[in-house]
Structure formats: structure tokens, C-alpha cells
């Protein structure tokens, strides 16, 4: 079997694609895997690092308002769809698995009528590529319940180091890894790889009050906000400030509670390992981060605060008592874990195998796209 993955652009699209690739290779080391990408996407770094083949196609970003770029779009789409079909032919692809983003739309248009399409939607609100692609296939999976009509709720494919993490068993080793005290309540703060300035400001303001209560802090400020973190201790408990955490499995094991944005992967990882969190959704886009967090929050495994309302006083008032209340933490851990899913990669693999077993589709199987595509890959 040869699988073509389409999930380039951002880590939120790439990471679940690579986690599926790992699962496919665990079951079948000879499974062929090719990832699609563009020159400007993070996939040019992340895919080779994980040991998978990457082939580049022409980027076709959708303009958000009428510009000259919109007039160029049909030609770009035709070019990228032709490139996709050449890759499908060259690799002998049996299926295309898409995760959204700029790479996914031409992949769906190129695969339509040629090979089966499987779509995984990570967010509570699907983007344009997955909304269009969903018209071409019945093989739809989602990480958040009811994110797409007729999609199966399979969860978010996770790395094995996270999916099989036993936080309790690894806690002492994890805290030693970061130089933390083995016995103090621990807050993990992260705003993603680039960081979140609002979260950084709030936790730095709250840090003296938290550490005065014996709460230690592990803070990943972000690569672009590395200047926005203090160094050393801020009180009787430790404050460990880092630009980036590359062993997130150990960070999750070290923590009792997290303060974080609400990206789809973040919410899925915290829930899977039973880590309570105060989620601060990014206040841009179509509100998908808030919707990503709501299921685990409603289950009792997390708390939610608006970005505009987050400051040092709010962090201290909410997280101080929670970190010192072991019984409340344990209840939230159980609620989060009951909502989390650790086997989404296996579920998505099963959907891929089902699509392959279903055979090659015809171009008219699932109706026309709202933007359409001709037999030669052009837009109409």
C-alpha cells in the first residue's frame, strides 16, 4: 500500500499526518508514504526529520478578499492539481489522506475520481479545504464530535510518547529532567512553539504570588518571545523559564495543571493524558480554539478564560487554589482522561484501510464541488 499525506502549512496539520504515518509503518514497515508540501511550509523541516519522503507542489492559498491573487488562482489550481496527479501516478498511490491546509485542496481535487480520499478534521470548525474535500468522499474522521456532517469521531492521532504516557509513573524522572522540585505542585505554561504574549505577561505577573505559595512553574515562553521570561527563582518555589520544550511528554508528566492556548493538538494531548488545564483560546480566526476546548471543559477536565480577561490576578485567583487542592485536581484529571482518546491513530488507520478496500472511486460518486474541477484538473 502507498499512502499520500496532504497536511502541509502548519504544525496543526502536519503533526497528525505524521502520527498516522508512524502508525501505518508500525503495522507495515513496507508501507509507502509520501507527504505533499510547499516550499514555504513547516513540512519542509518536520517531514524529513521524521524520516518520510516529501514532494513539493505549487502553493495555492485562497485570498481572503478580492485582489489580483484571486484572478491568478485558477491557473495556480490547475498547475498544482496536475502536479498532484503526476505524484499519484509516479508513487502508485492507493489513497490520499488529507488534514486540511493549503496542500490539501489541490490534493483532493487531484485525487478525485482517481484514488480514494480520506479526510481528518482536527478543529471544531473545518477549514475551506476540508469542506470542499468532504464532497468527494464518505471517509471522514474528526477530532471534535460533530465537527463535520457524517464524519466519525475518531479523535486526534497522537505521538506514541504521548498516547502511552503514564504521568504518575514518569513524574519523578520528568521533574528531575527540568530541574524541578520532586514534591511541589507544578504549573506548566505554554503558548505553542512561538509562544503567546498574553499568557506570558499573565503568568509572569502571577509568578511571585504562585511561588510564594510553594507552587513551582515550568514556562515555555516561545521561540519568538524568549526575551519575555524572567530567569532564576521568583520566590521560595522554582520558576524554570525556557524558550521551547522539545520533550513535551516529560513536561506533561511533570505538571499537575497547565495554562495554555487551545489548539486542537494541545487539547487532545492534555485530555488523553488526564492533565487539567486553564485554556485561553486564541481570539482570532473563526473561534475554533474555544470550540476545541469546550468538550473537555464541559466534561469537567478543564477551565476556560477569554484572552482579554487573562491577567496575573486571574491566573493567581484561579490556578493558585486549584494547584493546592489535590482532591479537585484528581477529579479534573479523571474527567479529562475520560474525555481523551489515546488510540485515534489506530482508528484513522482503520478508516484508511476501509477506503482502500472500497476501491477506486468514479468522479461523480459524491457530487460536484462548490468550486468544481474538470477532468484535467482545472477550475470552472
Give a description of the structure.
This protein has 380 residues and is of the alpha/beta class. It folds into two domains: 2-158 and 343-357, 3-Layer(aba) Sandwich (Rossmann fold), CATH 3.40.50.2000; 160-339, Rossmann fold (3-Layer(aba) Sandwich). The protein contains 14 helices and 13 strands. The protein has helices spanning 11-27, 43-49, 68-91, 104-111, 128-133, 160-163, 167-178, 197-212, 248-254, 264-273, 288-298, 312-324, 326-339, 344-357, and strands at residues 2-6, 32-37, 53-56, 95-98, 117-121, 139-142, 152-153, 186-190, 216-220, 239-242, 257-260, 277-279, 302-304. The strands form two sheets. A seven-stranded parallel beta sheet has the order 3-2-1-4-5-6-7, with helices on both faces. A six-stranded parallel beta sheet has the order 10-9-8-11-12-13, with helices on both faces. α10 (264-273) links the parallel β11 (257-260) and β12. α7 crosses α9 and α8 crosses α12 (312-324). The longest helix has 24 residues, at 68-91. The two termini are 33 Å apart. Residues 363-380 have low confidence and may be disordered.
